[in-house]
Design a protein that fits this description.
40% of the residues lie in helices and 11% in strands. By secondary structure, the protein is of the alpha+beta class. The longest helix is centred in the last third of the chain and has 22 residues. The chain is globular. About 5% of the residues have low confidence.
Length: 583
């Protein structure tokens, strides 16, 4: 079957579309093909123009660069990206037309409202999934079932993101306890059992290396506030990395038994983490700019060698281990305390909350489905992350994924200019001259299908999609410090080492937060503001007494705003999430 285009019944046409049709009533009947949001052109050979409404996009306008070239060659489509800026969702809902491809930031109220109001295309209508989604059904049948269970009418309107085709896998470790290994080795590899030991080692490192590459003072850690959510993000992150608990609302959730620890409980994981950072501050180990600087300012300090440790890989070793540093035998690598139980997310065959959908007014739903289906293949996922196969990445004769020289350059520096680069399509035989930077051509809908930590079925060596697991990308140790780390940990790469530690895999479940009513939401916003302000003030306390006083005021303020109601909601959510785990 080939849909080519849909003749949309009058009852399904949005008000805005109906008015446009009435205004042009002298047009031939075939003009009903333009009732949706895609421009006609499939039969003529002209590219089909698809509107992508993405709640995750940071881009507005036409898809450009290598991505546009590839999609036009492979599918004869052009994408126009509409981000979810202020009021965009509501405006498009009121118009009755969300777009052709819809990418949801989560499976909560916005998505559910679109389902309930008939704004999304049923993937089983006209055998769309069976005819154009065969790779989705091959790799991710559970994702289809999970979406059906999510919807009030039991129909399928999409699939989630961060998928694995096999159960029992976990995602990549983000909490990796990155530490300056070259300094650690100079100290004689002191034992790190707990956070007290870690602080002691970091203090010795600071003494050994008092200034960074730029001559500025080094600190053990450097925090930033602009990514804070319900709590101070870095404080919560350390609690997750050490205790093995996942964030949930205003506290942390133990996936092993469903327990919930509110963030203000005495000797709870968040409060103990807060005490640790205050201890670092009072020992001159915490960057004093932490409360006021941005992520960009912080990461520049990491790159300059002013920071000795990070809980997060992206704010530590991934930024620090440049060719410049390794050529100087400076190297940051994971060093997990023996008593830690690092949290890592389990992967799901059902998918997570960011949903790929098709708009019910789509004229060419089969073109949208072809695109989603290709993105659900290993090749589509690799292309989404790393560019054009054959030009930027491929598989060697043994089936191991590898970067070409150009691909490695683009991966390590997305601002790489591709102007003048030629590519010959294996599908059409046409040769194209690319333009713009690699980053310009990245798919701007900003969502994924496969999880980076999932095993790539096309990789014969069992590698995951992430290059940190590729034998071809790891290569030989880049410096003596890295070779030393590999020898002492008996590991080829960071992910392999972290797999040997006492980690906690948080099961992936088809869970979405319940909607808080207006009164509770008002209380919630007041409480989280007080929690974040109080937490930052506590980090900068100059004594135990001042810390206790600040925490007492934070608790009092939160209780006045309705903290008890917020915690009650969190406990109900924890119980519901745990019940879902048991199914």
């Amino acid at each position: 079957m080939k849909l080519k285009f849909r003749v949309i019944p009058v009852g399904m046409i949005s008000a805005a579309t109906a008015l446009s049709l009435l205004a042009g009533c002298s047009a031939p009947a075939a003009s009903s093909a333009s009732a949706g949001s895609a421009d006609a052109g499939d039969d003529s050979g002209d590219p089909v123009k698809l509107t992508v409404f993405s709640q995750l996009a940071n881009w507005s306008g036409a898809q450009t660069g290598w991505g546009a070239t590839l999609l036009k060659d492979k599918f004869n489509i052009e994408l126009n990206i509409i981000p979810d800026t202020d009021g965009a969702y509501q405006t498009r809902m009121e118009s009755g037309n969300l777009g052709d491809l819809i990418v949801w930031g989560n499976n909560g109220s916005d998505y559910q409202s679109a389902v309930d109001k008939g704004m999304l295309f049923d993937w089983n209508e006209e055998d769309l999934l069976a005819d154009y989604g065969q790779d989705i059904t091959k790799y991710f049948p559970d994702a289809i079932t999970a979406n059906e269970a999510l919807n009030s009418d039991g129909k399928c309107y999409g699939i989630g993101h961060n998928l694995s085709s096999e159960s029992g896998q976990h995602d990549l470790f983000i909490y990796d306890w990155g530490t300056r290994w070259d300094l650690y080795s100079q100290l004689g590899y002191p034992q790190v059992n707990d956070l007290n030991d870690l602080e002691s080692v970091l203090k010795q490192m600071q003494t050994l290396c008092p200034t960074g590459d730029d001559g500025k003072q080094t600190y053990a850690v450097s925090l930033w506030p602009d990514w804070d959510g319900n709590m101070v993000m870095y404080v919560k992150g350390l609690a997750s990395a050490y205790y093995g608990y996942d964030e949930l609302g205003l506290g942390l959730y133990d996936s092993k038994n469903g327990s919930f620890y509110d963030c203000l409980s005495d000797d709870g994981p968040y409060m103990n983490s807060l005490k640790f950072f205050n201890k670092l501050y009072r020992d001159n180990l915490l960057d004093p700019d932490s409360m006021t600087q941005t992520y960009e300012t912080m990461i520049a300090k990491v790159r300059a060698g002013d920071v000795l440790f990070s809980i997060f890989n992206y704010a530590g070793d991934l930024a620090y281990n440049t060719d410049t540093h390794t050529s100087q035998n400076k190297f940051m690598a994971p060093l997990v305390p023996t008593s830690a139980s690092t949290t890592v997310s389990g992967l799901s065959t059902s998918g997570s909350t960011r949903i790929w959908s098709i708009g019910n007014d789509a004229v060419y739903p089969e073109k949208v489905m072809e695109l989603i289906d290709w993105l659900a293949t290993p090749e589509g996922a690799m292309t989404n992350w790393y560019g054009i196969k054959g030009l930027m990445w491929d598989y060697d004769s043994d089936g191991h994924p590898y970067f070409t020289d150009l691909g490695k350059k683009c991966y390590e520096d997305p601002s790489t200019d591709l102007s003048g680069t030629t590519w010959t399509s294996p599908d059409t035989g046409k040769t194209y001259t690319l333009d713009g930077t690699y980053n310009d051509g990245g798919f701007q809908f900003n969502n994924i299908t496969w999880a980076k930590g999932a095993k790539n079925p096309d990789a014969k060596g069992g590698e995951c999609f992430d290059p940190s697991t590729w034998s071809t990308y790891q290569g030989d140790a880049k410096c003596d410090a890295e070779a030393d780390w590999r020898t002492r940990t008996n590991s080829k790469n960071f992910q392999e080492y972290l797999d040997t530690t006492n980690y906690t895999m948080v099961p992936a479940v088809n869970y979405a937060e319940s909607t808080r009513d207006d009164q509770l939401e008002l209380e919630w916003q007041q409480v989280i503001k007080a929690v974040k302000e109080g937490s930052w003030n506590a980090i900068y306390a100059k004594s135990d007494d001042e810390f206790a006083s600040i925490v007492a005021k934070m608790k009092s303020d939160c209780e006045g705003y309705g903290y008890e109601d917020c915690v009650s909601w969190c406990k109900d959510e924890a119980a519901r999430r745990y019940a879902l785990q048991q199914k």
